[in-house]
Amino acid sequence: MYTIGQVSRLFGVPISTLRYYDKEGLFPGLERSSGIRRFGEQELEALRVIECLKRSGMEIKDIKQFMLWCSLGRETYGQRLELFRRQKAAVEAELKKLERTLDMLRFKCWYYEQALAQGGEEGLKALLPDALPEEIQGAYDRAHAGL
Amino acid sequence: MYTIGQVSRLFGVPISTLRYYDKEGLFPGLERSSGIRRFGEQELEALRVIECLKRSGMEIKDIKQFMLWCSLGRETYGQRLELFRRQKAAVEAELKKLERTLDMLRFKCWYYEQALAQGGEEGLKALLPDALPEEIQGAYDRAHAGL
DNA sequence: TCTTGACCTAAAGTCAGCTTTAGGTGTTAC
DNA sequence: GTAACACCTAAAGCTGACTTTAGGTCAAGA
Known about the structure:
The structure is a homodimer.
Chain A: H1 4-11, H2 15-23, E1 31-33, E2 36-38, H3 41-55, H4 60-71, H5 77-118, H6 122-125, H7 134-143
Antiparallel strand pairs in A: 1-2
Chain B binds a DNA duplex through helix 2.
């Protein structure tokens, strides 16, 4: 069993945030002894899931719904599975968008390296949109696809 | 040249957002004819870069700084390159975190598929933390690494 | 002429997710 | 016995990124 301060250090999450999560109902079965919160293995796994679902773009109130399902037992396995499948698809989509973002950043890095080396952008602008060197044309194309 | 409404439809960005960006100084050289904004190729590329930098986690005020550098000419190539390199590193780090998030989601999907199939979690909990089937143990380990 | 639609401004409002503040309890260390 | 910690609560405050509101201009079509 851990105190709020120990969990805070363990996960690198501020104490105020843990109290906020608790107030929002994210630790439905959290025990207390004489007013003090006692975090067990269940709450640690809940916190891992909270961080995961937050990173996947889910809002606190929807995470609360999930935690509620968890405390309702086997009746809710179906809903929980559906939720994780939805978030999995969301993260896969986000990964694709981030890959295109990275393509743009790769292109811009290359562009300013060239601009610095050549002392200007003129020669570079003449290569747009489709006479770029092979190694960077792909990144440019993917970053500019559809607009 | 495009009006604000055309750009809005083209990029799928609300008109109010485009005006907000303009007010925040994200289109430093934006022209107007009798009060009406005229978006040219430069502003379209600026908007692509805005979406890219936003997705990479940058704040509006820092994007404004970048746009300012762009309007200052070749003196600022170095700063611009540095900025893109920094954001590239940030996105690469974010991609790694998202991969771990995805590992957690993969594990949870598998877990609830099993729970549904078996009618309960008991048999499953006995496999934690290191007796899981090969195909899912890796995802579990990566998702739970370091806590 | 009048009304519809696309544009404009300044200022106030909204929302999520915390964080801070102000005040209080209970236990250990000197 | 008093000071330093680690915990507690309720409520107010903050931040960033928009969005909405309220009111106005201008041009084209019926």
